[in-house]
Design goal:
heterodimer; A: alpha+beta; six-stranded antiparallel β-sheet; B: 176 residues; alpha+beta
């Protein structure tokens, strides 16, 4: 597609005529025009030569042939030079990018957004992703209750809204979504442990030393500020682990706990999708075997393990438990109560975790001054984004334990809660349900029963086999994942 | 249901693109040469649309741009030659060649349709295609359409049949 650059040149500048113009129009004072092909200017004789035709003012042909026109008899010359239109450039770039995305989607179909219901709460002028529900519940038999801290929620007034979205190619079967409100005193926070207990926690004591394979990691692990510490997966074995040593000083008297704010990387998502892809058209049979407890669900994700915590006692490391939030989307805050008196010496904590599987935002010691209770609050109202109106049917399904609300990709519901009127509360989201990943056409070529069998019966070998394939997509997976979130057009 | 939503998204692009693709429609083809060598051999002036104040009444006058001089613009509307006072011209748009913006609109539309292959990534792809398509067609039209008062009458005269100005006896000439 060409653009046309037209120039009108007076006869005294005939030497400057653009010779790249295929045609030369020679406009005469009385309105006649010569349209010349194969033209040239003889500056010495001040004559323009060319083949073409002479037209009158009505543009009817007068004469055809070869002409020699005196430059001094001309009114103006007209040249028209074709150039490539810049309008093509943005479309060409977008076309190239679009083809690249098509190729990427075709070759890396497991890099797409997924992972259970996402819950957003108000944060300033926008909605912030603050929790994801029952991430490990990928089949009906794995239905589970998940409690996530809404650590950044700051409700204004008694009315509290949570937006529940289905942003993936999944069917979400949501049994219930409740808010647990626990009273706060002063600057204390309320945190949950891995057993679901709610603890009153004092101000966090930040680490004084932090050492990981990459060196000093204190800046990343201090403060719950969104700056996360992460690493890359091992090149030969996806379950290879790494060690992070953290040291605390001035540990408070009395019971303390290790506070960890973390979420998973996309490694677990990749392994889940790889498993489903290998199940292929036979996925129904495999899911039936999971439902009948004939095979283990999520063997690869279980092989990834959690963040194992140990503490230094004299000359040995003592197991203190494990922490791990399933899901790559929202950071969850959990406390692991520690047993012992740590006031006499620096407290040394060792974290053992699978390389490339965790993103840790904060590690701190908090004083645990007691266990507290929470008030379970059910939704008062459910509003469908599609209609903008209250959906009483959806509300009934979330309130009745025998029923469940099924959502499809793009569905968004606003859940409205009424908080207690007195004081300030720490909020937690308690969601129960399960979800079903949709099979994708792009996955079907990867159907391989032998690989599924290896994943189930020999996950350690499968983790080694899959390492090179994951490393190929690991660098770009984050961008592809977040850009493939599903919202209704 | 999903397919319907995808198609609906793509249709939005088609609808958005259509007015730009048709920006040069209903103009006489004889006055709109293709942007190739035909432009250089085209003997007529560009097509002009003029918002003109005639006896205090706004009117739109369209036709071939014949010539412009200091005080007047000459337009031939295929019925008669119109001599317009430049002082009374509110706006004039000269179509120098066929922008073929419909081609760009079609390109963007096909691109948006191809975004279906991106799966749910089309949530991003389709708006990008729409924005780029609109920007490209808009820019393309700006290449082919030259407007007063954005450009001077002197600049517009390059696209007249007589860029040198009205020849003698133009007003008596009814053989345009």
């Amino acid at each position: 597609m060409a653009n046309v650059e037209r120039r009108i040149v007076p006869p005294e500048q005939a030497s400057k005529l653009d010779k790249s113009s295929h045609y030369l129009k020679v406009h005469m004072p009385r309105g006649n025009v010569y349209i010349l092909d194969e033209w040239f200017v003889d500056e010495d004789l001040r004559v323009v030569h060319g083949q073409g035709e002479l037209l009158d003012t009505a543009r009817k042909p007068i004469e055809k042939g070869t002409f020699a026109i005196s430059i001094d008899s001309v009114a103006v010359f007209e040249t028209n030079v074709l150039t490539t239109s810049p309008a093509l450039i943005p479309l060409t770039i977008v076309t190239a990018a679009s083809i690249a995305v098509t190729i990427y989607c075709a070759t890396n179909p497991k890099a797409c957004f997924g992972s259970c219901p996402t819950f957003y709460v108000e944060s300033g002028d926008s909605m912030r992703l603050d929790a994801e529900g029952f991430s490990a519940s990928i089949a009906p038999s794995l239905e589970a209750t998940d409690v996530d801290a809404l650590f950044s929620a700051h409700p204004n007034g008694r009315r509290f809204e949570i937006e529940m979205r289905n942003e993936a190619l999944e069917t979400h079967v949501v049994r219930s979504v409740n808010v647990i409100a626990s009273p706060r005193r002063g600057k204390d926070r309320v945190v949950k442990d891995t057993r679901g207990n709610l603890w009153i926690a004092g101000a966090p004591v930040e680490p004084t030393l932090c050492s990981g394979p990459e060196g000093d990691c204190r800046a990343a692990l201090s403060e719950n500020d969104g700056e996360e510490r992460s690493s890359l997966a091992d090149e030969t074995d996806l379950k290879a682990r790494e060690i992070i040593d953290v040291q605390f000083e001035d540990v408070p008297d009395g019971p303390v706990g290790l506070l960890i704010a973390s979420r998973q990387s996309l490694l677990s998502t990749y392994l889940l999708y790889e498993t489903l892809a290998n199940m292929g058209t036979d996925i129904g049979r495999w899911l039936a075997m999971i439902e009948n407890a004939e095979v283990t669900a999520n063997p690869l994700i279980k092989a990834l393990g959690e963040i194992d915590v140990s503490i230094r006692d004299e000359d040995e490391w003592l197991d203190a438990g494990s922490v791990g939030e399933h899901g790559p989307l929202a950071t969850d805050v959990t406390v692991l109560p520690l047993e012992g008196d740590f006031t006499e010496r620096p407290l040394r904590v060792r974290l053992s975790l699978t390389k490339g599987n965790w993103r840790i935002d904060h590690v701190a010691i908090v004083a645990l001054t007691g266990v507290t209770e929470g008030i379970r609050i059910e939704p008062e109202q459910v509003i469908s984004r599609e209609t903008g109106l209250p959906d009483d049917g959806a509300l009934v399904k979330l309130l009745d334990p025998e029923e469940s609300l099924a959502t499809l990709p793009g569905d968004v519901y606003t859940l409205v809660y009424e908080l207690p009127s007195d004081g300030e509360y720490e909020l937690f989201l308690e969601s129960r349900g399960y979800y079903l990943e949709w099979m994708r056409t792009e996955w079907l070529p990867d159907e391989n029963a032998q690989h599924v069998a290896q994943m189930i019966f020999s996950p350690a070998d499968a983790m080694k086999r899959l390492a090179p394939a994951f490393k190929e997509v690991e660098a770009d997976m984050e961008d592809a994942f977040w850009s493939s979130k599903y919202a209704k057009p | 249901m999903r397919s319907r939503r995808q198609i609906a998204g793509v249709l939005i692009v088609v609808i958005l693109m259509s007015p730009f693709g048709c920006a040069t429609s209903n103009l006489p083809a004889a006055n709109l040469p293709a942007p190739d060598d035909e432009v250089g051999a085209h003997p007529l002036g560009g097509w002009v649309r003029v918002d003109y104040e005639q006896d205090g009444t706004p009117v739109e006058i369209s036709g071939e741009l014949i010539a412009i001089d200091t005080d007047h613009m000459y337009v031939f509307d295929y019925v008669q030659q119109r001599k317009l006072e430049v002082a009374n011209i509110q706006r004039a748009r000269v179509y120098a060649f066929d922008a073929d913006a419909a081609f760009l609109a079609g390109w963007a539309t096909l691109g948006a349709l191809s975004a279906i292959s991106h799966g749910y990534g089309l949530v991003l792809s389709v708006p990008i295609w729409a924005f780029t398509g609109l920007a490209a067609t808009s820019y393309r039209n700006s290449e082919a359409i030259h407007s007063y008062p954005d450009r001077s009458f002197d600049a517009l005269s390059a696209y007249a049949r007589f860029p040198q100005g009205p020849p003698p006896d133009l007003e008596k000439n009814t053989r345009l």
